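One-letter codes give the sequence; each number marks local geometry. A record appears below:


***
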Amino acid sequence: MTMLTTEPEPAQQAPRPRPLARELQEITTAVRVSFHWLGTSRSLTHSQKAQAAESFGAAEKFLSAGKKLFDTSAPAYRQVTAVRSRIVQYWKSTTLPFPEPGIRLLRKERLGIFEAQLTEFRQELEEAVTRLEEEFETLQQQARERLGSLYDPRDYPHSLRQEFAVEWDYPSVTPPDHLQQLAPELYARECARVSARFEEAMQLAETAFLEEFNGLITHLCERMSGQSGASPKVFRDSAVSRLHEFFERFRTLKIGSHEQLEGLVEQAQSLLRGVTPQQLRDHSSLRQHVSRQISAVQSQLDQLLVDRPRRSIMRPSTGEEA
């Protein structure tokens, strides 16, 4: 008698993402930056709104009113907000977008640099807050004079040291390994969801680079344009320097998913290599040559922007291998 045997079904495996999405997942870590920040305004109390509504002959429930706690244009406060702006700009310029609010992707090789820079920013923020605190009594006194009966000392903290802070962490965006043993099917679904997230992250990165590059190229073309024989439109050094900054950032952050864009970036970088803004202002023949070549790059970028939705739709499925 012949005995028929069957092999046990293997545990469900998570679908394998495409190589580039998988590589992006392997070489990056999620990073989140958040702030604790003192509010600079307050809503009026019920009685204050009622008084304001009465003075205008308005219904209170149709009135929204608030007050500023202090002069936010004061240099000491603007120094504090400037540090926050620099932190956000650094975070965004050194990371790639990710389709979850508040999270971006940082290359693991840059983790130490990122940590050191954020630690330095935190120190700068603390120093700026200390300077603000030294002047805060004056700002509060000015507010007392300007707000009149709306002034309430309870709106103001006794110290600013705990009112401004920056925090950052590295949240996990992948399912925990122990889930594979506890619930294989759930683990597989979560892996598929994460793979889709990194596929989307690649598209977000492509779009961000494409739109930023197009904006910089368009601006440079506009600055160099002009009627025949006429002086070109005046353009600042930043029209060129910002492109060089983009080239460097693109070099360090690109993920190799858009060969056409990479080719256009290399072409523009080659055109501007060794060319200074002053040379473009002083030498019309050089300016015209660069303008023609950059305009050709712009035309190809415009076509990429037109083709972008179709390219996204035609992207291979996440289960396909190269």
Q: What stands out?
A: Residues 1-17, 310-322 have pLDDT under 50 and may be disordered. Residues 184-224 form the longest helix (41 residues). The CA atoms of residues 203 and 312 lie 8 Å apart. The first strand starts at residue 28 and ends at 36.
